[in-house]
Amino acid sequence: MLNLNFKKDLLPHAVAIAIFCLATVLFFAPVFFEGKTLPQHDITQWEGGAKELIDYREKTGEEGLWTNSMFSGMPGYLINVRFSGDLMKYVHRLYGLFLTYPMSTIFVSCLSCYLLLLVMGVRSWLAIAGGLAYGFTAFSIIGLMAGHNSKISAVSTMPLVMAGIHLAFKGNRIWGFVVTSIGLAIHLRPNHLQITYYLLLIVLAYGIMQLVSAIKEKTFPDFAKTSVILVVAALLAVGANFGSLITTMEYSKYSIRGKSELTEVGGVEAKAGLDTDYAFQYSNGIFEPLFLFIPNFYGGSAREDLGKNSNLEEALKKNGANRQQIKQQVSAAPAYWGDQPLTAPYYAGAIVVFLFVLGMILLEAKYRIWLGGLVIFALVLSWGSNFSLNYFIFDYLPGYSKFRSVTFAIIIAVFAMILGGFLGLEKLLSSDFNKQTQKKLLMAIGGVAGFALLCVLFAGMGSYRGAVDAQLANYPDWYLNALRADRASLLRMDALRSLIFVLLFAGVILALLKEKLSKGIAYTLLILFVFVDMFGISKRFINSDTFVRKSRQSEFQLTEADKKILQDKDTDYRVMNLLNPFNDAKTSYHHKSIGGYHGAKLGRYQELIERAIAPEQSQIISALQSGSFDFGEIGVLNMLNTKYFIAGASANAVLPNSTANGNAWFVQDIIEVTSADEEINAVGQIDTKKSAVIDESKFSISDQVPSADGQIKLLEYKPNYLKYSASNSSYGIGVFSEVFYPEGWIATIDGEEAGILRVNYILRALEIPEGEHVIEFRFEPASYTIGNTVTLVSSSLLILLLIGAIGYSFVKKEVLPQV
Fold first, then answer.
1. How many CA atoms lie within 13 A of 613 on its CB side?
2. Tell me, what DSSP letter sits at residue 313?
3. What residues pair up with 655 in beta bridges, in sequence order?
């Protein structure tokens, strides 16, 4: 039996778990006690796009793997695919105390940071405060509000991975291996590789720090041995997620994150990855990261509630606005005055910033360089287009160009500031409180509090003008002046708020150091101040009014337009919603849609949208506005079998298209081109019912002249299976209104495998001999089958290792684990 001292070894951890659980439940009380839900834009869109895959799973118990509900068809790997071999989901749920997802991610964040701080040597009561700071950071709360659940789930376990790595370098290699592998395995489950990339940067910087230390201390063999052990742990964690990772890697080559075959203007070859304009669309201004300390430094959000007695409210009253107009304007005012199209402040905490400054003064050099360097690097990355170095980083830092929304890099700074801050506080409380230590503490207080005070005193001196004001060009001067006065007021009040929290926290620390307060009272106050600081700002984004009672399905109630379309019992056609089709997946909930909502659609399809589909959409809208339109002119949308267009919610807003090409057809003419550029240019010029374009540099066909005298009929449809009958009097080329994807699709003609051709830039085609035939397409990607097997084996090993490590600790009569 283990000799455990309950008060020393168990009570602090039990209290920590209870506090984290209570704080999570309190924050999301309407979910836990009133049966309400948190409306999340991206989750609503995800539900629309995932509907076909979910329905297929519920009906058959199998994975669809492919869906035709979005963008005319795409793999379901990054939409909704499950791996039966994923046993780590049970460990993940247990680690989150089986709390409701995604609310459980906040609890997991708190617990993970708590464990990291313990491993780094921070006393448990201070680690509780650090856990709350990380769990309730605005980055996570804003992410949940938007529906970025996978991102926040990945963020929640970053500290756990770091805890395992540090445990190993402290010499506890068994538990270091186990915690690293388990932590990384559940970190990878949400498959948010951008956050994983940021974690890798943190770990690489830590590794450099340890390498330098090992060289100085002449302990390189120990460093090498530990590093090898951690690499094995990482490989095992990757193995436990091999299915999702291998399918994502396979798909990424063909998504908008991969390399385009098109060339830019002037014949310059296109680069792999995203375009900088797209990736840097959301970039912080140079001073904008000051929201880490003062949340409303740049006005807060683009739809800020100014509250009672604002300058804008008074100005609206004076200028004759009625009560309803005042409420609408004041409750969603464009208070943000930075350069981003849409944003909210990723507040790290006034107390956290103060502690981080303290840590940069007190900590030994290696930690100052590691954590301080991470903060600086994260700020630079978040500046995006506003800092020229980022264009070099984007082009040359391996893998970085695959990701957008560079402001997300601010989570690196949040992580480093919390860790550095609480390490600094522990250093302060563990040191002799002599004049030199007191001087360093007062330097930190003076610097941070002094900056906040300056912001309070001189808030009125800013211009409070930004790029967003271009949208307000037609507003009267009195409105703009009042709005800018409110922007100044928001900064001043939040600066005062931060000043108060810094002084209160610093006061408790001084009282504790001078033995004016007992440790119990002091620790309680420190935890309370951190919680109130973070909780208060987070409630600006998610509060009791945010939650709703309506079910998720109410977002997808059938409109009269939907009902009219669904009267067509031949459901194997596509629908295009002419109103914002490529950023809305609600149409996908009920129909096979031309559009959808996804951050990694197929690259060729995106190019077809830009070069052909969007222009045809504009052509339709312009013609309809003038009175009439000939649907026979839209060859690309017709080849995608777009049978209905939606121009509104009413039944009269449904536009049937009798000229759609159907599910499949024979063509009489094959136009051979030699490049992707020629192919995409040609597809918009041809009659897609009679002709098809093929890139002869990639696909070869028979010299026979194809005949269009035949018929192809769809007999059976499943997301991952299509069955057709074909009848033709002579050799022909059949074009199928299905998106071509080079991995996993297998075609057979009368049971014999046939090579799938790509025609018209995006569609599938087959060479079909004369006669009566049965044609089948099956989506059977080897990456999924192999990946699922590796996932099962690796996750089983991980669970056995966890059980073994616990058993070993009991045999050795050690506390689990030694930190």
1. 28
2. H
3. 645
Residues 88 and 616 sit within 8 Å (Cβ to Cβ):
no
**Local structure of 745: helix, strand or coil:** strand
From residue 604, alpha-carbon distances to 259, 615, 745 in Å are 10, 16, 17
Query: Strand order of the sheet with strand 669-673?
Result: 664-667, 732-739, 763-768, 757-759, 691-695, 669-673
Supply the pTM of this predicted model: 0.92
Length of the chain: 819
Determine whether 703 is exposed, middle or buried from the number of CB atoms within 10 Å of its CB (0-12, 13-18, 19+): exposed
Please report which helix (H) or strand (E) contains residue 717, including its range.
strand 710-718
Peptide bond into 398 cis (omega under 30): no
For residue 748, the cross-strand partners are 753, 776
Contacts of 381 (CB under 8 A, 6+ apart): 390, 393, 406, 409, 412
Neighbouring residues of 87: CB distance < 8 A, sequence distance ≥ 6: 240, 792, 795, 796, 798, 799
758: β partners: 764
Indicate the CATH number for domain 664-780.
Answer: 2.60.40
| Rounded-to-10 torsion of CA 287, 199, 192, 232 | 170
Measured distance CA(220)–CA(693) in Å, rounded? 61
DSSP string, 541-565: TS-TTT-B-S-GGGGGPPPHHHHHH
**Residue 750: C-alpha distances to residues 74, 381, 732, 772 (Å):** 26, 55, 16, 9
At CB < 8 A and 24+ separation, what contacts does 558-561 make?
A: 558/590, 559/649, 559/650, 560/649, 560/650, 560/651, 561/646, 561/648, 561/649, 561/650, 561/651, 561/653, 561/654
- Yes or no: say if 607 and 262 are a contact pair by the CB < 8 Å rule: yes
Tell which phi-psi region holds residue 8, choosing left (phi > 0), alpha (psi between -120 and 50) or beta.
Answer: alpha
Cβ proximity of 185 and 244 under 8 Å: no
- 517, 524 contact by CB (below 8 A): no
- Residues near 351 by Cβ (< 8 Å), separated by ≥ 6? 133, 421, 501, 502, 505, 529, 530, 533
- Answer yes or no: are the C-beta atoms of 640 and 737 closer than 8 Å: yes
Q: List, run by run, the mean pLDDT of 10-residue segments along the chain (819 residues).
A: 65 94 96 90 91 96 96 96 96 95 96 98 97 97 93 98 97 95 98 97 98 96 97 98 96 92 62 77 92 93 85 90 89 87 88 98 97 98 94 93 92 98 97 92 97 95 84 89 93 97 97 94 97 96 87 77 91 92 93 94 96 94 82 93 94 94 96 95 95 95 90 96 96 97 97 97 97 97 97 96 87 60
Helix (H, G, I), strand (E, B) or coil at 784: helix
Nearest in space to 179 (alpha carbons), one of 195, 160, 201, 200:
160
Pairing outcome for strands 74-75 and 654-656: unpaired
Map tokens 């109103």 to a residue. Answer: 579
Structure tokens that stand for 544 in this block: 């009791």
Q: Which residues contact 292 (CB under 8 A, 6 or more apart)?
A: 346, 347, 348, 353, 410, 413, 414, 417
Cα 612 from Cα 607, distance rounded (Å)? 8
The backbone torsions φ and ψ at residue 585, rounded to the nearest 5 degrees and listed phi first, read: -105, 10
Q: Is 272 left (phi over 0), alpha (psi -120 to 50) or beta?
A: beta
- Whole-angstrom CA distances from 803 to 90, 205, 407, 797 are 14, 31, 40, 10
